[in-house]
Amino acid sequence: MKYVILAIFLFGGLAIQAQEKEKQSLKNLLFSGKLKKDSTGVIRSTDDLSTKIDTSTKKEAAPVAASQPAANAPDKNAAVSKGDPATSVSTIGAVAVTNTDSAAVVPLANTPPAKTNTKLWKEYTDSLVRTLNDEVLKSKQIKKNTYYLMVDYEIAPDGQVTFTNLTSTPESSFLTAQVRQIMDSTPLRLNPVTDSSNQGKKVKRKQQIVITKE
Prior knowledge:
Layout lengths: L1 H30 L49 E2 L4 E6 L2 E6 L16 H19 L9 E11 L5 E9 L3 H13 L7 E2 L5 E2 L1 E11 L1
Antiparallel strand pairs: 1-2, 2-3, 4-5, 4-8, 6-7
């Protein structure tokens, strides 16, 4: 009799243990999403679990994260970096292009020094003598001789020259008239003469011109 009671308890314990395992299996299938949903939504311990498993549902693979660009890889849309005023570096794809401003260093043009009044007057009288030799001294009214012409003139505050008087030694009215006509038709401008405050002022000057007819 004792053995019968012990067998009943063992069988009952095994049955309870089997039911607990089946319930745990149902819970695992339910939470994993593999059980089909029926109209009643009730799952019994006596049901066939293979008919409840939803084989049409597949778990999607997690998307593979896009590979990040290397930290040192150049950006195709990178803006042009500015360096010194003469050189700039721009990034095009993976090629660095360096542009050098060739106009950054421009040699200055050599500025000729200003001519002095002595130089300007000499250039003027040299031109006058050439004109006299070509056009005036060939006249028979001028005898062969060396003539010393004294020219009186004024320099205005802006440097403009005005011839005021002309004499010849030896005297030659024809020569002085011709020289005066040429000088009046070819104006002369010199550098202004300035006072102590660096302002141009009006001054009078004299200059001698030597002409020789051979």
